[in-house]
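ping. complex inputs:
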Amino acid sequence: MTKDAIRITDLGDTAFNVEFGDAIDPVTNAKVTALAGAVRLARQGGGLAGLVETIPTFRSLMIQYDPLAADRAGLEAEILALARANAEAPTAKGRSWVIPACYDADLGEDLDQLGQRAGLSRDQMIGLHTGTEFTVHMLGFMPGFAYMGGLPEALRQPRRASPRLKVPPGSVAVAESLCAVYPWESPGGWHLIGQTPVRFFDNTRSPPALLAAGDRVRFRAMDRAEFEAARKDPSPLMPEGS
Amino acid sequence: MPNGLEIIHPGLFTTIQDLGRFGFQDLGVPPSGALDTIGLRLANALVGNAAGEACLEISYMGPVIRVAVDSVRIAVSGKVRLAIADGGTPRPVDSNRSHRLKRGDTLTVGAVDGASTAYLAIEGGFALAPVMGSLSSYGRAGLGPLGGRPPAAGTILPLRLAQCRDAEDVTFAKPMDYGQGPIRVVLGPQADAFTQDAVATLLASIYRVTQEADRMGLRLEGSKLAHRASADIASDGLVSGCIQVPGSGAPIIVLADHQTVGGYAKIATVISADLPRLGRVVPGTSLTFAAQSVAEAEAIRRAQEREIERLIRGIIPVPSTGVDLDALYGADLISGMVDAVSGQGR
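pong. complex structure:
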């Protein structure tokens, strides 16, 4: 796929992808975010009849539509026009968050192993992770799960060969060039390095997901006492955001 | 005094579902909703509800429910063994028609015949608060009424109507035809990540639905599908019906509770008209696939919508011929039954 090409691919008769690339990189992701914003504006203006919703991802925007209400060819043409008109649109500046996390060995079972591979001490690994500003590329997989890019080289490893059947909620995890927090207990193949008491998804909040694409995230190490106190607090801990 | 429907026994896996929770997939929230949207719409039509009113989705074996309102009209779409008891012996009754129940009556929703799902609609619907715009249940993230979980024994589901409208009971003039033959797909979005042989294999082989079949998806066994290079892609969006193929080469068709994005290449996507069929298949079912263009898929869907509308327009009063002996004998829910008309034991 050439650098500036836009490709349309089909997901049956209810959706199509507008693809800007096939890899995870910030330039491609910014184009996705720009188109998602343009589509949102067009819908607010009453346009794009039959569109149901969109899913922005690393490299593509999925457009889901009602085949009984939408004219597929017309919708595709309108979206492509928006993509071309907004190709250079500046990305809205996301919010900035500081997420507290406890890196104790029983909460982040894989941290020591990752450290051994990288030849770094536990403190050095925690320093690397808390010293990084991550960017949210997309949400997905499960409610509130944010794929955050920018992981330092030393922390990068492929996903585990065999996924864990149960990853505890709040787990801070890394895989490839990405970092994420599991908002819910689930199976998962990423490496666990710590746990946060922050709730990443709460359907009584609006919006229910804490993070959005474009947001920037830093982690802060918290000790066990602070972690346990925050976890017992029935009011959900809100991280420091700006 | 409770006011609603009391769950005496929850059945195998009974959840509250409507047509889905849309508008939050960009936050990672699955659409959920009925696996068989046609079945849900038909059940609602029989009790005069709007098409998308929330129903109980019955998986394999339904609940036992006691009526704790003055009266209620219910209908179960699909071929399901039903029995109503008013204090005495349960009396088998037909599905695919409405029934009027009164306070204290018990409805036993038995096995679903030949399908995995069926729908129980209540006239007026449930008096439950939507969560993020929908009454659909998504247990993993606690979304939906009852925290997205199946109602447990003892749960009282509140209803909008304390008594049903004074209408006659109705049924369909003919059954819904879900269609047979291959499941139709549109190739893509990553058909080019597979070998040409893999695409040909998908369209020429017989696949079997394994025991791993639930609201998230169906795992299939059969001929393996080979990728050109890798099974992994940079994760992108999923819709119900996407056929993703992990490194094992065994396809997985995702259904209503699917993850919003996936990192496995997708060889094809089931067309929307054939999704309700997949929402009803039981493990062990053999499936074949045929490719269509998007335009063909749209035409098929439009024709199907016309058929559903015809079916709903053709709803007729239940013929008043008294006891339906075929249903009585066919239901096989009680033993030692005596035909009250002929006096012969069966």
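Chain A touches chain B through 46 residues (CB under 8 Å).
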